[in-house]
Amino acid sequence: MEALIKSTSLTSRAYWLIRLRWLAIAALCATVFGAERILNVSLPARTLYIIVAILFAYNFLLFLFVKYIISPQKEGSIRTIGRMITFQALADLFILTLILHFSGGVENPFFFFFVFHVVIASTLFSTLHSYLQATLAVFLFGLLLTLEYYGVLAHHSLKGFSDAGLYRNGLFVSGTFLIFSATLYLVAYMATSISAQLRKQQVSCENINVQLRKKDSVKDEYVLRLTHDIKGHLAAIQSCLGIVEDGTVGRLNEKQTDLVGRASRRAFKCMKFIKALLKLTRLRLSGRLEFADFSMKNTLFDAVSYTQNKATGKNIEVTCEIDPQVDVIYGERLLIEETITNLLVNAVKYTPQNGKVKITAKKREDSVLIQISDSGIGIPEGQTEQIFEEFYRADNAKKIERDGTGLGLSIAKQVI
Amino acid sequence: MGQARILIVDDDPDITEVMKTVLENKGYTVDSAEDSDEGLEHLKKLRPDLIILDVMMHTTREGFTFCRKMKRNDDYKDIPVLMITSIKDKTGIDFASAAGDEEWLPVEDFLDKPVEPETLIAKVKEILEK
After folding, report:
1. Given CA atoms A12, A13, A16, A17 in this order, what sign does their dihedral have?
2. Closest partner residue to B86 among A231, A237, A243, by Cβ?
3. CA-CA distance, A132 to A232, in Å (whole number)?
4. Average pLDDT score over chain A
5. What is the ipTM of this complex?
6. Is B14's CB within 8 Å of A240's CB?
7. A246 touches chain B (CB under 8 A)
8. Domain boundaries, chain B
9. Which tens digits make up the pLDDT trace of A348-368?
10. The domain at B5-129 falls in which architecture?
11. CA-CA-CA-CA torsion for A37, A43, A49, A50, nearest 10 degrees?
């Protein structure tokens, strides 16, 4: 079973069973109440309510157990949860049998609820285990019918709902039992084959994911090598152009200066792009960052004052509102500063003259919420999903700045 | 000071040419070598006052190897080394903070590629005046 369900989902399945049981408890209460008080069916209501109370306590204990005693990190806890789930599945069969015994036995059509147990078992356990579960249900129900038929166990009839003598009608009892058994095994067969198929698909999906991640990282390494090589050549081009431009090797005429300047600017843009690509790729590949305590407030001020310099030219007002409680946090200062600067510069770049850019920082329970808003062009509807994709640039952004790299927001997202 | 002799060890002929031009323009005598073998030969023959070294030549570590060999030799160990690299892009290592570590990066100083002419001149001047 451990092999079938991953440890992470095991706990959530345990919670799922507990939630289902709360539902069953509520439904049981309502049914007993409705049957007895509204439909006037004769029932050992008190006994049933006691069973409900026991079930309630049992479920609450299970909840506490999963919540406080088992921690998914602890070694061996997977096995403990696995055993607990198996135990629950068995206990539930006994409880249902007990409830049926006190509410009419074969005369109570709720015996078909055993089907749910078999379905649940087939989603949680192996095929064999599911059949065993079905067999146990058949056995328990058969035992109940037999013992009531022969009078070993007292029969609690549902007067007012079904014919009180049915439990002694051999043909009816055996017929019901046969149909019940056939149904249960059929359900076990169907449910296990469906969940087996699902599991197979899940496994292949996971494998594909692993392969994709591998390929992606091969691609990243390739890109890293490639961009690094390009950067070497670019650096040489820039250096050569640089000393021609600054007159180290003699004065140029006007046309020459113009053309060398153009070449130099293009090389600079290319370098900017290559550097951004390198940074993003390295970030994607490494994941190893240096975390430390640092002042978030100061980082924000730095980013804002850097942006203010850029914004004055366009007469854009950059305001910042920082919650005084926001101060020292634990994280990668450089990356965070760069990301915030990146977003602020973006905001300034795509905000027209005399606009406004605002950054706010608020203290949350164990995080800081930073919001950046601007009176700029915004993001066209339908493109919000794509803006974080590498090389993606929104249509309206392209019109304003032709040469953006399309990498800024990707880097930001990678950092976050 | 303009008479100082500088040896550039770098396998990129274009970068070498630029640095050479910039430094010669300031009156330094500049020689260049394409790999560490040629560099060691020049070291013997020319006795430079400063070595400008590219960390990543044919192999990633060639610059380091050259540097360690040189610093182990009593005749050359006092010649200052200015290391130039773009290796930070590949490794993410902050070389600036490692410069001067005898075991790891036994160089006097460190510059990141691409090197601006003014920065190069300033750095060279600073090291030679020490």
Report:
1. negative
2. A231
3. 68
4. 82
5. 0.72
6. yes
7. yes
8. 5-129
9. 777 877 788 888 877 776 677
10. 3-Layer(aba) Sandwich (3.40)
11. 160
